[in-house]
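Lab meeting, action items carried over

1. Structure of the two-component assembly. Owner: GW. Status: complete.
Input record:
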Amino acid sequence: MSHQSPIIGTSPIRKEGRAKVLGEAQYIDDLSLPGMWFGATVRSAVARGTIRSITFGEEINWDAYCIVRPADIPGENTIVHLTKDHPCLADGMVNHPEEPILLIAHPDKIALLAALKAVHIEYDELPGVFTIEESEAAVENNDAARIIWPGSDAGGTANCFRQYLMYSGTAEETEDGIAAAFEAADFIIEGEYATGAQEQLYIENNGVIAECFRDATGNIESVCVRGSMQCPYYLVHALTLVFNLPEEKCRVIQTETGGAFGGKEDFPSVIGSHAALLAMKCGHPVKITYDRAEDMAATTKRHPSRTRHRTAVSKDGKLLAGTIDFAIDGGAYATLSPVVLSRGTIHAPGPYKWPFIRVRGKAMATNLPPHGAFRGFGAPQSIFGIERHMDKIAKTIGLTPEELRRRNFLTTGDTTATGQLLSDPVDMQHMLTRALNEAGYHEKLARFAESNKGSAIKRGVGFAAFMHGAGFTGSGEARLNSVVYLDALPDGRAQILVSSTEFGQGTQTILCQVGAQALGIAYEDVIFHQPDTKFVPNSGPTVASRTAMIVGKLIERAGKKMLETLRAAGLSEHHSSDEFKACVKSYLAEHGTLRSSVRYEPPTKIFWDDQLYRGDAYPGYAWAVYVAEVAVDLNTYMATVTRFDALQEVGKVIHPVLAKGQIEGGVAQGIGYAIYEKCMWKDGRMMNNQMTNYIMPTSADLPPIHIHFEEVPCIHGPEGAKGIGELPMDGPAPAILNAIENATGIAFNTIPVLPEDIFERLTSLGHPHGGSEDFNLTVDRDTRVEEVTA
Amino acid sequence: MRSDVSQFDLTAPETLDAVLTQLAAEPGKHTPIAGGTELMVALGIGRLAQRSLISIQHLAELRFIRVEGDAIHIGAGTTFTDIRRSVDIARDLPLLIQSASWTGSVANQNRGTLGGNICNASPAADTPPALLAYGATITLVSTTGRRTLPYADFHLGYKRTALRPDELVHTITLPRTFADYRHYIRKVGTRNAQAISKVALAAVAKMDGDIITDIRLGAASLADRPTRCTAAEVVLISQPINEDTIRAARAALASEAKPIDDIRSTAKYRAAVAENLLEEFLRSLL
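Predicted assembly:
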């Protein structure tokens, strides 16, 4: 090994940080190409219907514009995800508001405004469904007029993109066990829990620049799209179908990306295909950037969900058996819903031992814009259900929330609900003890119970315990078959080539740390190649808390492999950075290049059965207990989080400052999810698509967030690191609602909980009125001006 | 940007007189713009109906805070930041300082003006409740002269004011007579910063023992305009603070409140919270 002291576990300056701080980082809207035009999207004004006519107003000189229609698409009119139900441009039929119908480009961006207003589309409207319940009802009632999605050859049925059925054992044995347990149980506890949509609200809106190149005979030779995105190879795949081109003719370059949170996982396939079609038709590079209102109204959000629990419990607090029905609202097209549903289904049982459990999952179609990836990817929804339900069980049978969980936690050597053996050490008992101590939980429980008497401010504490699987589900990582390159450069530095992207979370920095440590050289001597599919291999998408663990491990292996090569070429065992550089230079002088290429291989055998939904669901799990302290003001009915403690076991902390930042940001997003951010829909259209009325918490709304780590190394990640990207999104909402129940005695089971909802429950005596469902979304007397009569 | 800026006119006459002359020459054609924190948002989202703007941001004549005897005169062009930094306002009119601190972000406060906040006439605006509680008067100017009226009479309806198309707000005048008053102000917004009021209440009261000898209440988002809550004031004046008084005051406030359901909240919530805030204030007087 080298002289270098460890780099993993320290907090070197971010690779791209200097350029960002100095304002030198170039985001897509900072970039321009010679002769570039600008593109815009003509969108559906209705939720569902057939297009009767499209007319172009005579006030516009349309010869100056380029217009793309479905017929212009050289390949398939589809944005491919798991199936091909999602058209690139609506052809004859629209299925959600804001659905793209036509594309327009012009050399002058401002000239697009008048053109968009001059396209007149008439529809024959059809009835839509806008909630999980309406979509289910259409199926149950055989209401053909409201079957809005026909089914697919990829496992979908009418109005349902996908269903899963997951048993803790064989189907028969589990059903028998459930039946017997419910027969014998001291308590049977039921509950229903619902979560709303959530906007990712990355700082930089979606945007791309596309080019289309033709050969001497005028045929399309290749396309190139650069832009703000997470997964360059997803866009490559989408372009191959839209343009009927081979992969190597579809080049995608990720530019500096100002936040993503999943919102730039699947969506760039849409805007990227659109810009490329305009570039093809007009013969110029074309830039499309959305403004905030368009981005919020038209792009993906977190799936709304509903979780129904039915649980058999003994009087000493043992979970005997359970059934969970988990449903998500996928929007108008399948997109990634089956995968979101999968993660939600697998996480639904929580970190508990279930002798017998059955989880049913289904993703329903509605006439909302398609919901998509958002940090947590289904898990925050179902974990909200189980962690609220555990508090309900505790209250019903007369145990504390703490004691109930202690009697049912999974531990080392147990198997999860999918039958996965937990061979790495798991100690949730210790995690819970430490988290409650860090938060001062017991002292506060006692103190608040006293101080709440006669006070208009009701304080409370609550917690949530959970696990989050890192990496793709089941056999996903094997299917992804990721590859990384590590190159030795002529100046003796090393360069990482991966399609894994930086979008603020620290990918470049942590992968360079891993590379530097594996090579035994300085952090500064490892650099990161821009994700450009012309040069970088497919290391998989930057999603699913997989980058640090899976791609990091690949970089670690690539580093070790390169070191072996250099050792054979004479590099000493305890080399310095300078000796490394000298050895690289002499190696390159002799051999020309030195590239270490590594392909994914599971460090241990991973078994997964996609049919039975059983086996090793994830390579590794991060474990956590989050504790929330809240204050509910009975004068304003506002709940405020006053302190937050987040304890997680993450394998190995690669970069303490970035890791802490990830957790803080996730907790803040989780607080928004729980008590601030409400997507308000009217006939499928988002009505509050502005920062002024989509209420994301500000720093003035957030409490001190205390972050604590535990480290139990995992064989699947570099130096034992597991994924943490999504984890912090899972715990805040149930912890906060558990705390609100502790403070007020009222059980809220739907998020977000707004002050109006607390008001309604505190004052209604069973007659709902004045809650947030009574908002009038068409009236805004401050930021919109309305005619007022009387 | 959803507006084509080439479709808009902007002029910036050098003096106040020149602005007034232009307004008088073509009444209703031009819209004054000071900090632009409302109009530029409308421009960005493509909803700015006014096509001709006259900038008044640079007019030093409108940007002043003057203490004269028993009154403080504040120029319409005074920014929220100016207000927050004024020692005189902090001493005599603390509610105005507090309300100015609520508005938007620091950047908004550096540009936004008191006159603009009033003329935009949102029922949810931050400073009007304090101005109403303090009994402000407002001085309007035009080429034909100036007139002064109680600020409580300035708002005529939803986004309608007493301002004529040829007039500008020149000065907001507040009495400095609240040294022995108790002050209260609370905004209940959608969040703790950069928020629009769901409801807000400003109050001043003078006590003689447990008897209220004077009380003024100003509210935001309780009606189609910023409102003085006179019905509640009437039942409170000369009364001792006790459970009956509090109950009567809540009922009176409920009778005069005309809140609505909108995208930010519900009428029922607004009415209930306004009553709660009033009660919180009254109990604090004991």
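2. GW to write a short summary for the group page. Key points so far: Chain A has a mean pLDDT of 96. Chain A has three domains: 31-124+205-260+264-298, 305-473+614-773, 483-599.
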